[in-house]
Structure formats: C-alpha cells, structure tokens
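Objective 1b. Sequence-to-structure analysis of N-acetyltransferase domain-containing protein.
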Amino acid sequence: MADNGYNNELGVNESDSLSETVVVIREYDRKTDRERVEQVENSCEVGPNGELSLYTDLLGDPICRVRNSPAYLMLVAETVKNAGDGDEKREIVGMIRGCIKTVTCGSKFSRSKTGDPAKPLPVYTKLAYILGLRVSPFHRRMGIGLKLVRRMEQWFGDNGAEYSYIATDDANEPSVSLFTGKCGYSKFRNPSVLVHPVFAHRLPVSNRVTVIKLSPVDGETIYRHRFSTIEFFPRDIDAVLNNHLNLGSFLAVPKGYIWGGSDKFISDPPENWAIMSVWNCKDVFKLEVKGASKLRKGFAKTTRILDRVFPFLRLPSLPKIFSPFGLHMLYGLGGSGPLYTRYAKALFGFAHNLAKECKCGVVATEVSSEDPLRLAIPHWKILSFTDLWCIKRLGEDYSDGSVGDWRKSQPGLSVFVDPREF
C-alpha cells in the first residue's frame, strides 16, 4: 500500500507557515527518505521520559511495523525553507504510520429455523490503527503531530474505516494529551503488556501437559470457532497464521490426549486446554534500553554469568537489554476449563524455551485487564506496563448495527491482540 498513488494528493495544500518555514505532509518515499527518517527515530524516546529510555531499531525498514497489514500508509512531515538564492532546504521532522483491517467489534446471536440453540456470531467493523507517530524534539509544540494525525485520518476515511484507534503507554502524558485533548479520541481499553526476560536456563514445562504444534489450517479453525467473537479479532486471521513471521500455533492438552485434527477437537475437546501463537518480532525490529548506569549494567551482566555457569540453580537473569535485543510476541492466548490458566502457563514455558533457542532477549504478551491470564502468565513487573487504547469514530453516517456505538461498549473478558501491530 506504500506505492498506492496517494502521493499526488499530499502536496503543498497541506502545508502551513511556521515562521519562515513551510511544513509539508507527504507520503514516505523509501528511495530518498529512509536515512532521514531513521535520524528522527533515533532522536525520539519510546515511552515516558525518564532515566531509562527504550529505543527501536527498525533494521533499515521504516515501514516494517505496518508492512504485514492488509492496507497501510506512512506519511512524513517535511520542513521546506527558502534559502534566499532559489535553493530550498528540506528536513524531515516527523512521521506517522497507519493501517486498516477488519476486526470483531461485538457479537450477535444467530436465528435458527430448526430450533437449535442460537449461536454467537461476530460483528465486524473496518478499523484503522495509528502507530509510530514521531516528531523531532526540536520541532515539537508546533502542531506538526496534529497535522500528521489529521492527514492520516483523511486516508482512513477515504478507505472506508469506521473507527480509528491508537495504543500508547498509559504514563505517556504528551501522547495521551494529544489524542484525547486535540484529536477527539476517548480512552477505551487498558490491556496489560506482560514482559519476561529470556533466561540462560530453560523453564520447566509440566509433564502432565502435551504441547502440539498446529498446522495453520488447524490453528485457524480453532481460532475462528472459539475466538472470533472476541474484540479486535482480525477477520483475516488466516493471513496472520500463514505469515512467515508466525513461528507457529501451539495447543496444550492433557498428557495422553490423542490429536485427531481440529474438527475432532472442536466436537469433543478435553476438559482443559490452552492455545497460543508466537510471532517473531526479532526479524522486524530490535529494542535497546539506553541511559542505564554502569552499576545496573554490571548487575545485569553478573546475573547472566551466574545463570550461564550454574543453570541448574535456575537463577533469574537479565538479558542484554542494554544492547539491541529481539523479542517474541505471544498472541492468541486462551483456552477452556477450570485449569486452563495452568495449561497457558505451560505454553508460556514452552514459548520461553523457544525464544531461548532463537536467542531472543524477552518474550511479551498483551492481555485484557479483565483476563485471568494477567495474573497467571509469568512476567517481571519492572519490565511490564499498562497500555492505553484510545478510540475515535471517524464518521457519524455509519450504521450502528447490532453493536451500536463501539466506543460505548463495555470491555469483555478477553481481547485479541494482532501481532502485526505490536
């Protein structure tokens, strides 16, 4: 979608005077803009200001975090200054990414003519997502971020999106203020981002649990049958599961359970089971924590050495987060049965060990604030945080349908986090 011809509509008519400088909002040009965009990215912190800052290395591809979405666009804000001799000085000072997909926003019950019990069916909406909004520290408080958001929302509307949402750290006051105060978004959901370091030793997986790797077809069948009515469930889940970044979907069942395929599983599931998929963010971007003291770095190194030398002690250790590190995203977590959280915990141990083999620094997942997995999944509080999702209705001419205004709906027990947007 980056080369969609939309560039012709992004011209000087979007510019505005800023002292003697003109600001132009236009589409990102991968041939000429990459290095200048990376410079802006490197100058911006991710998350709230503080002693420690999280930086993202996009591995030379500024569009990497939206590239796998069905439709996407990246815009840049460029200052154009006339040097007085006919020459123009251009500088990229901001950027924004956006993507559009179809997701579940609620459910309705089917009408049966045969007398069978009514079944819940998903209600879909076309949803847009804003991410990666950056403005150079030297060009903030000039309205550039607002211009980028409005231009991106125009593209959303032109492509039929009914709602737009953003995700930000709940403690990121400037970002929250921009979207809720100036852009018309309202606070919507507060999922928890749970982060766990990958140790030098393996985590034990219960010998009462068998972990089965599912084919993409079996994974899709189970997800659509059991999770399609969950908020934010992507209608193109098949595209997610077949993506090369998806390392697999895994099913935890009681030891001794005989797998006969997804249809048999759906018709006669075990009492307790859990499912999870793993997304390889390591090949998309890498993270780095900067601003740490020598004492903190030394302590982290000591924990790694002890863990590596004495793995049988199973000592908690901190990976090399003060240099670029990769992560695996665990998504689609869920299950059934009174003991399903234990099965989910077994899947987490399996995923940790997989990340260890792939030399990842951390594993992360994101769950609803109402989900019992929030307390069951192992994580480090010092690395985890509360996310804030804000939503906006892009037009009032859409039918409310079976759900009504999604903004006014109550949160469900679970939420489906699309790994393509993490």
